[in-house]
Amino acid sequence: MDVLIHFLCPIIQKIWDEIGESDNERDKMLLELEQECLDIYRRKVENTRKYKADLYQVLAEHEAEIAKLTSALGERASFSRVSFSFHNMDIRLLSVLTVVTVVIWPTFSSL
């Protein structure tokens, strides 16, 4: 945010100088701009958290479906349970793909 302010401030200052904006109005506008930027940042963070939760929900649903399929085939699906982070999601996805390619795919490809 500091980079943005340092980039925009000279531009805004020049415009304010041209139109003769008072220091009080300038301060008020800068505070409003800063608040709007913080609000946007908070919304983006919240949207990202929701997206992450949605990804984990979809992954859990697919793991359950694969577990049902492997159980129906007489196999046992084993998924890696790791802590929640985006890096670890890659590990969980790899675990799901391994079960699909090692257990489920050969069964269906031989039909």
Tell me what you see in this structure:
- The structure is a single chain.
- The chain has helices spanning 2-19, 23-72, 86-109.
- The chain is mostly helical and 111 residues long.
- It has one domain (2-109).
- The longest helix has 50 residues, at 23-72.
Structure classification: mainly alpha
Q: What amount of the residues lies in strands? A: under 5%
Helix content: over 70%
Task: Provide a count of the helices.
Answer: 3
Number of domains: 1
* Largest pleated sheet: none
Q: What's the overall average pLDDT, rounded?
A: 76
Q: Give the N-to-C terminal Cα separation.
A: 59 Å
Spatial extent as radius of gyration? 26 Å
Shape: rod-shaped
Number of strands: 0
Low-pLDDT sequence parts: none
N-to-C series of helices and strands: HHH
Concise synopsis of the structure shown:
The protein contains three helices and no strands. With 111 residues, it is mainly α. It has one domain.
Which terms summarize this structure?
111 residues, rod-shaped, mainly alpha, 3 helices, 83% helix
